[in-house]
Each structure stands twice: as structure tokens, then as C-alpha cells.
């Protein structure tokens, strides 16, 4: 790819899944790995009864692989922390390590046979004591413009279950491998030679690469691994590690977490062009042509006829004056302003003899 010195010999992209339990074989949990200049390839779980990765099995594999001998960057597709409003509501210290311990005490989604929904609905743990609002978003989610809230469950594109099931395994990995750099909580710029774990949002990159025969989950994991590889080669990764400005945003990012590649301030979305209103010339608004409609001059619509009017594409409607009872014909496009031809000095009515 390039001769630019790299920080990482290996990149790993993980498209996460919060479905079922930590022991379940999950088709949506996919892992891709690139080494040196080689194209990212899918990593399958060890041989055994499980066809796909389990969350528990993936955590064990990462603990084994991230042994410090090969500098590696791992991108995982779920949030690593919660919005500052969550910390404020529950009076938690703005510290990620403390957050992990507190969260796992209330949301033990890494325990055997435990679904996220078991905790949500009070069957296990105490999730009700540690909740947030679906409208709460982290600054980094606002920065992307499209990432959903970590509390927005049960919608297309939601990361809520992935996040609530994945955070306990981040804690387990951090405890097993204290030398790992969890970005940006351990600092915005990792030390040379360190292996790094980052929050990834594949939507930022997946459109850059042909999907080929990959499933959407496979392609998201592939896109993470490949973008990390290419960005490391080009030098763009160092820029992506840089702290957002101003400094208060960076401080908050080290509590809430940050999506690698998200930039601050958020890009302004272009305002949609106002839709041109269709011309009413020759077209009668549907409301004014309904039988019973009464215009401001006390002219009432009785019914529509099949007779052609004398305005473009119009039919004749029979109107009656509420003041004098006069009946006459009018174009549908004229109804809203029509005056009685007998008592209101209006124009002569259209013929209705054969209506």
C-alpha cells in the first residue's frame, strides 16, 4: 500500500450483536482481520459446536490475541460509554472505570443465560436503577449526525442492545489486559507500540468499499478492519486520534467516549430546497369543490356536472346563492371567489341546462 511507517501491524474489525445470550452462536457477530498489507479476511470461531461467534468466545479470543507481541488496533461497533446526562441523573463520578463497575453491577448481561431484555424488564439485575432517555445522545453521536442513542431500543439500526451486552466484556478485557489502550479514556494519543481498542461506526466507511458477496454484518466488520488498515498506512489514523476541539468537548469525550472518525463541530446539513407549490390556475382545490362548501360570498356548492367549463381542464359545478336562491354554473377553479350573478354583481353563470 505505502512505505509510510505504521503504528499497527494488525487491524481487527468487529460488527457486534446484542442478540440472545453471551453463549449464543450469533450470525450477526462478525470479525475481520488484516495483517500488514494483506486484505482483511473473516476470522471464524474456533472449531466446535458453535457455527458463529459468541460474545463470551469473542472476548476470550481477544484476550488471547492481544498479548502485546503484535501492535493491534481493534474497532468494535457499539458504544463504550453513556451520555453525560446519564452520569448526572445517577450521580456518578465522570470516570470511565467507575462507570464500568457500576454498569455491570446493574446490567449483568455477561452472566450465563442472560438476555438484555431480562435485565430491561426486571427479571435479572437492576437495570431500572440505571436507565436513560432515548432522546439522550452523546456528543460523538451528534457529531456523526446519524448514530442513534444508546438508549434507543427496538428500532432499525439501534446499537442499544449491542452496547448493553458489550460493555461488560470491555470491562473483562480491560481487567485481563491492563496494558491495552482504550481510546480515548486512556488518552487521545496512544503510546507507540501499544495495542488500542476503539469505538467504530461502520456507516462512516462501509460505502467506500464494494460489498461483493459479504452479508451486511460481514461487510461492516470488513469495512472497519480495512479502513483502519488504510488510515494507518496513509497517516490519517493519527489525525483521527486527535482530540476534538475546544478542550471542554475533549474532556467530555473522555467520559462519554468517542467514535473514531467523528469530527467536531457536527457538519451542518444542507437545508432542503423548499418545494414549489403547484399553480392553482385552472386547478380547483379539492376542499372548495366538495358539495356543501360555502365560500365567503355565501355561494354553496351543490354538485359537479360532466359539462366542460371555460377554464383550462375544468368542469362545471352547480352553485346556489344562499341569499337569493339563484342556481348557476361555475368553473371549479372559480368557486372560492364566486359571487352571485343575480344579487351579488357576479359574472354570468355558465349554462347548466343539460346538467
From TrEMBL:
Residues 264-292 are annotated as: Disordered. It comes from Limimaricola litoreus. This is DUF429 domain-containing protein. Residues 268-278 have a biased composition (Basic residues).
